[in-house]
Design goal:
- The complex is a heterodimer of chains A (224) and B (237).
- With 224 residues, chain A is mainly alpha-helical.
- Chain A has one domain (2-223).
- In chain A, 85% of the residues lie in helices and 0% in strands.
- Chain A starts with a helix and ends with a helix.
- The mean pLDDT of chain A is 88.
- Chain B has one domain (5-236): P-loop containing nucleotide triphosphate hydrolases (Rossmann fold, 3-Layer(aba) Sandwich), CATH 3.40.50.300.
- Chain B has helices at residues 43-51, 94-104, 112-118, 135-149, 165-180, 192-195, 222-229, 232-236, and strands spanning 5-14, 17-27, 32-36, 56-63, 66-67, 79-82, 153-157, 184-188, 201-206, 209-215.
- A six-stranded mixed sheet of chain B has the order 6-7-8-3-9-10, with helices on both faces.
- In chain B, strand 7 (153-157), helix 5 (165-180) and strand 8 (184-188) form a beta-alpha-beta unit.
- Chain B is globular, with a radius of gyration of 17 Å.
- Chain B starts with a strand and ends with a helix.
- The chains are: A mainly alpha (224), B alpha/beta (237).
Chain lengths: 224, 237
């Protein structure tokens, strides 16, 4: 399973490296979202620093939809899905490989956006360990849920419009938990907010979706 | 001896429609069987069912001894399907596509270079993204992946489509060489004059069932010599 995951993950990353979609479209889109938030709040640094955590994760969430759609699209073109099924690769390995590739892209995106919120919104990173752990847990959750629902949507003709409708409500706990964790780490949360407690919510979500995807992907690959 | 492909009253559905409506078919090791019939007769569905990517919902379907009714995935790594779609990734290079296909199937990636050479895909084409290739070149890349894998069962759907005269001869050579090594080849084709000389069994399909089987003697063609001269035997050895 892990050999197959490494093979599929490396293939997806090579495709992204060659196509440059992530660097020329997804990353600029994410930064643009952040800049537009800045305009919308009239460049009020006091306000922006308070809501920076939420804006960061909304930007990550919207950008992750593009990344997931792209990950599914490369398997839909020219019979690639049938070729993948015919290859005999372990479906759990395919799921983990695609999830890992999305995670790698989201980590880079979060780094870019992290620099963006520091520069544009003037925030201070007070608890780097909590920030890092929340990024890891949220990224795993977003990538796993996105891959799972992306596969469900990819068999349908309306997949481009259906995917956000499926994914956004499902990943709402990640948005909530990661935002609260970040606010605690940035010192902008209300008094008494325990960032590590919110992190456990995000971590639990990630574990559930990795387990569900590993177990259910076989059925999805065959039936969707 | 147990046939390599054995269907008995096999029924398969696509969108609720019975694309296979009770197929009976036996193909032995080393056979080249030609499936012929009009559009929508069920030729492609037989190939997809034999590959384990179209579920047989009733009857019997066994390939290489694996029961596809119970477990349609059981045989996938042992068969190769060259279908209407190439199954290639547009943004990967020719070499990367063939290499990924081999690694995914658990075959040694060292055969990649030889397969590309025989199919005229070395040089500038080897590193070109597949999206930049013509339809015929894409077909050759898909064929290179199949030849390098050298599966036990070759399932070919209109394999000559898109190929020029030179590579049609090369393909014929591949088919004959595979059969001579005991591989089982099932070919669906509308090009009777091209495909019939390759086959020792001609299966007529209509309405999702097999309506006739004719045993014939496969003929030697210049294609075999062309393929041999290009090193086909060394690629698949």
């Amino acid at each position: 399973m892990w050999r197959d995951a490494a093979l599929v993950g490396a293939k997806d990353l090579r495709i992204e490296y060659r196509s440059r979609v992530a660097t020329t479209q997804v990353a600029p889109y994410a930064v643009l979202v952040l800049v537009l938030f800045g305009f919308a709040f009239d460049q009020n640094h006091t306000l922006l620093s308070k809501v920076a955590a939420g804006l960061f994760w909304v930007a990550v969430l919207l950008s992750s939809l593009l990344t997931v759609q792209r990950s599914c699209a490369i398997e839909s073109a020219d019979g690639a899905r049938d070729a993948l099924r015919l290859s005999g690769l372990d479906p759990a390995g395919i799921f983990l490989g695609k999830t890992l590739a999305i995670m790698a892209q989201l980590f880079v995106l979060e780094l870019v956006l992290g620099i963006g919120v520091v520069v544009l919104f003037g925030i201070e990173l007070r608890d780097p360990a909590l920030l890092f752990c929340s990024c890891v847990a949220a990224t795993v959750g977003l990538a796993a849920a996105g891959t799972l629902y992306g596969m469900i949507a990819s068999g349908l003709k309306v997949r481009e419009t259906l995917l956000p409708l499926l994914v956004l409500p499902v990943v709402a706990p990640v948005l909530l938990g990661a935002t609260q964790t970040w606010m605690a780490a940035l010192g902008t949360a209300s008094a008494g907010t325990d960032g590590w407690k919110w992190l456990s919510l995000v971590g639990g979500f990630a574990v559930i979706y990795v387990a569900a995807g590993t177990l259910a992907f076989s059925i999805l690959v065959e039936e969707s | 001896m147990e046939p390599v492909i054995r269907f008995r009253s096999a029924v398969a559905l696509a969108g609720g429609f019975p694309v296979l409506a009770g197929v009976d078919l036996d193909v032995a090791g080393g056979d080249v069987a030609l499936l012929r019939g009009s559009n929508g007769a069920g030729k492609t569905s037989i190939l997809r069912a034999a590959a384990g990517i179209l579920r047989v919902v009733s009857g019997e379907a066994a390939v290489l001894g694996a029961d596809l009714v119970c477990d349609q995935r059981a045989v996938r790594r042992r068969v190769g399907l060259l279908g209407h779609s190439s199954g290639l990734y547009d943004d990967l290079s020719v070499t990367d596509n063939v290499r990924f296909s081999l690694r995914a199937a658990g075959a040694p990636a060292g055969r990649t270079g030889q397969a590309l050479e025989v199919l005229g895909l070395l040089g500038r084409l080897a590193d070109a993204p597949v999206r930049s290739l013509s339809a015929g070149q894409r077909r050759r890349v898909a064929l290179a992946a199949l030849v390098a894998r050298d599966p036990e069962v070759w399932l070919l759907d209109e394999p000559h489509a898109g190929l020029d005269a030179e590579y049609r001869d090369v393909l014929d050579g591949f088919i004959r060489a595979a059969a001579s090594r005991g591989r089982t080849v099932l070919v669906a084709s509308h090009e009777a004059e091209r495909a019939e000389p390759l086959a020792n069994r001609i299966v007529t399909v209509a309405g999702g069932v097999v309506v006739g089987v004719e045993l014939v003697a496969a003929q030697q063609t210049p294609g075999q010599q062309t393929a041999a001269s290009l090193g086909v035997a060394t690629v698949v050895a």
